[in-house]
Amino acid sequence: MASRKRRLDTSGEVRECLDSLLSSEEDDLLEDDSTTDSSGGELDREHELPPDSDEEMQFVVGERTQFPSSTPKKPTLSKKIPPTPTSPIPSPTQQQPGPSHCREPPATTSARQQRGRRATRATSRDTDDEEFDADNPQPLRVRRRPSITGATRRASRSRSRSRRSQSRQRRSQTSSSHEGEERIGRHRREVSPHPDLIVDLGADTMSSNCGFEWQCQPSHTRLSRTLSRNIIHEAPGPTVEAQGLTECVSVFELFFPDNIILEIVQRTNQKIAIYRQAYKKKDASVADTNPLEIRALIGILLLAGVQRSNHLNYLELWHSRMGSPPYKAAMSSTRFAFLINSLRFDNPDTRQERRRTDRFAPVRSIWDSFIERCRRMYTPGENLTIDEQLLAFRGRAVFRMYIPKKPAKYGLKLILCCDNKSKYLLGAIPYVGKQEPPPQGDLSLGHYYVRQLTRPYHQSNRNVTVDNWFTSIPFAMDLQSNCGLTLVGTIKSNKKEIPSQMRSMEGRIPGSSAFLYDDYMTLVSYAPLTKKGKSSKLVHLLSTMHSTPTLGDHGKPEVVLFYNSTKRGVDAFDQMCATYSCSRKTQRWPLCIFYGMLNAGGINSWIVHSANCTSAGRPPLRRRTFLMELAMELIRPWAQHRLTRPTLSCELVALIRSAFDLPSQPLQAAQAPEREVALLHNSHFNPEKRCKDCPGTAKKSKYVCRGCKVSNCARHLYTYCISCISKGPSCAQCGQPVEEEVVD
């Protein structure tokens, strides 16, 4: 066979065919088969054809395409070679004498030959047959299957994606002919209007066990105009007092104004005075606080929340290598722990008397001020959401709650009212347990909370979305008739006003809905459709906003779809609080409430900032960036004030200036600020003339400033030449020359 290949290579067209058809594995097969006949004997060399012969080319082609099977097949070539008068091409069905490709395959073959024949079959199947045109002969071409490469795989995946996209388009076009139908698994069913999805109760009226009568037919047909109770006359957004403010600190001060900060400073200083009596050394860590320091403390808490380090030990925040510079620039770790432990929010002298009627007395003053500011600064949209929030707390409190479905499980329960669209906190009421006498009177507790939270928005035609803890039939009637608000919410099936037919699953198919109507109320009993196509329970909803049995997507009632779209206002707000929470572990519940106020104030500030920036035509900051800049701006004034202290070390001065990009040049005498050493640090002033900028174990200095009379060592002095000032060093703070004093 090797000699045959060399002879066939001399032919141009045949060589081109062989180069594309023959592979290394098939060459071995042909070499083995060409030297043996059907009986296993060696073929005579006289059967070989002369070179450049068309007949020999037919042998090669036939041998590659017809050898695997005993039945001759049509040669699988791209173009057939035109016949010549001297050597016509025989028909594929004719028996060719001599060559082994026309004989019957041997009875026994080796495994290598079988593998070669399978490869030859695959090659013959992959070639293309085209009809031969005698008038326009073409050279011999053979198309082979391309090798599997990375580009081939990517092209194949691209074609698969294209086919899937075309299939989806065909399905969407087909589904247009099935409008009003829903696919469940492989089956379709109509959703609206379909008599099976709206249950026919078979009566005009229906009464409950308590005698409450419902209508089975709506009082309104499909409406072409919006009902008057669903028309809103106010545009949502920041109020006039909050409009135009985009700076982080200015927006935050809307919710924590000076009166709240001063109240905290006053009550905290009262507690500090009591704690200070237990300290023998009255240093700066137990000194009284001021508004700048309290704002810096708030900035530290917000910064820890943004960096997700609110539950780290405070010593890690002030670590020399792992800590963040803004913490060290604001205050020392000892001072931070002392202030957190000393924070108070009310007058301790009257606390016990106020607690007799109000369990929330230790934090009531600043809480009411904060909630009032939240209501004043923003006008909500058309939908309000009222739900509960649980502030994580495991300390001692009479009204601590256990809610197993909440992430924290134990904590303080707050009833919140939020704008559904912006998630802005509009109001909140703490749950303080059962009280005697009950503040709600004859109303249920949920009814009382909703009335109190929505009081500023009565007669505004807004909608309130609540869960089944709040909803009741008398509550919905009172909210519509007396408060001018509509209600949408789930309702418990054990309410006495619900007829027994609305609770029964008998005869109900999955996805069906039953409707009952009052003058302006709609009661829906919906059988949810699960993934398995079954329904095990009914869901009941009450609405004073909807008045027709309208079905939406997938056959769900419009009341259900509206409830699902408006029920997450408080849940989203709670999730935002948990994302950048500044809450720290504490055993005092007033401090836990204060942390919750800071979280809510940060979210409300960012919402007002975003609305004002959008109105001004510029993009708002992201919430993380907003809180980061707010924390730094709250810390900056107090850090600058610390630079005026004479006992601040050089390392800390450099850290403060680098953290807040302050000028690093020393202050000149004309620019030196007034000292407050005698006012703020008189109790811990060192009379032994040690260097004020060195640690407490530093040696005594022989240099004393003439201006401020403070000792300085040689490391903390600045010298001037004799032409500028009298010979000798000068003070770095006041710029005056220092005089040498010998200290024993």
From TrEMBL:
Transmembrane portions of the chain: none
Pfam families associated with the record: DDE_Tnp_1_7
Ranges of biased composition (kind: Low complexity): 68-81
Biased composition (Pro residues): 82-91
Stretches the record annotates as Disordered: 19-194
Compositionally biased spans, kind Acidic residues: 24-35
Listed InterPro entries: PGBD
Name of the protein in its database record: PiggyBac transposable element-derived protein domain-containing protein
Natural source organism: Petrolisthes cinctipes (Flat porcelain crab)
